[in-house]
Amino acid sequence: MNFPAAHLEKLAKLVDSVYNGAVSSEIVQADTKIPVLKINSRDIRKVVELVVHHKDLGFTYLNTISGTHLAETREDESLDLKGFEMFYVFSNSQDFSSLAIKTTLPENNPEIDTIDDFSGSANWFEREIFDLLGVNFKNSQDLRRIMLPPDWEGHPLRKDFKEGSHYNGIPTTRSSELEAIRIE
Amino acid sequence: MSLYHEMPENIFVTSVDQLLGWSRKHSLWWLLFGLACCSIELMHTGGPRADIERFGSAPRGTPRQADLIIIAGTLTYKMASRLKLLYEQMAEPKYVISMGSCSNCGGLFDKAYSVVKGVDQIMPVDVYLPGCPPRPEALLEALVILQKKIQKEKYLRK
Ligand code: SF4
What we know:
The complex is a heterodimer. By secondary structure, chain A is α/β, with parallel strands linked by helices. Chain A contains 3 helices and 9 strands. In chain A, strands 1-2-5-4-3 form a 5-stranded mixed β-sheet, covered by helices on one side. Chain A is elongated. Chain B is an alpha/beta fold. Chain B is 37% helix and 11% strand. In chain B, strands 2-1-3-4-5 form a 5-stranded parallel β-sheet. In chain B, α3 (38-46) crosses α6 (136-152). Chain B starts with a helix and ends in a 6-residue tail after the last helix. The interface between A and B is medium-sized, with 16 and 22 residues.
């Protein structure tokens, strides 16, 4: 179901009015099925608190948090190219509409405040992004690797990730062809 | 008249090697262990159509009772140490079938950061079974090839 258009127009203004202009936000991609609200990364906790708790919004269900490392040049130069792009997708359990909050983080030392006290499921999403992209979630309750082994080095979904020649004594490349076995 | 013709019908003569090989190859118990999509085919092989048990090959829940481990699926680095532990817990003599492209050489995860490029990097393999995934018939064929290998072994004369 689509986000109610009336809400959409009000949303950016609402963010503006609640925080008296201290939090800047803009609706980008209002025509897609999930509208995207673009914010500055330092305001993430304020905006999430608003969309979760405000009586007109009530996006209480966190669908996902996703991260992308942008390191390649794109044709459209208006895009913010270097760094990390984060999407927080929330849903409203009353009318099943969704809202995405988008923010970007710098290429060097990316960090953002955790939101795991607003939604318990946020912790695993944040651990995944920390594991694969190396984004640091400040004040997280439990920020450990979630999928890769604890002794893993590096963050493999970064564009500049370099694989070592061995992991725990196991070669990471294969040189020899399979030897055919023959049994008469 | 040889001795052979004087014996009653319910007695037959063979060599110890052959008898041992025959009994060992028809009691190849395998460790119930699967890793990825190939293990779905492994389950089918245990099902009524392919029915791997008619070759005397029964699934076992513990490595201590198993003679054979079928590496069915994608082996990641995180799993590699656990798999090695399972393999080391099995009693000698033990056999390994590498089932599917992933465990043969990494398969379609050849460029992946998390996948071991072939299970023979961490343990010896007796039979490589190609396919993505191999059909249950192919797994049975691999088992028969392994049985032939076991039959030819001189187990007591090592
Ligand atoms: S070889 Fe193919 S079917 Fe088997 S585990 Fe790999 S991807 Fe899955």
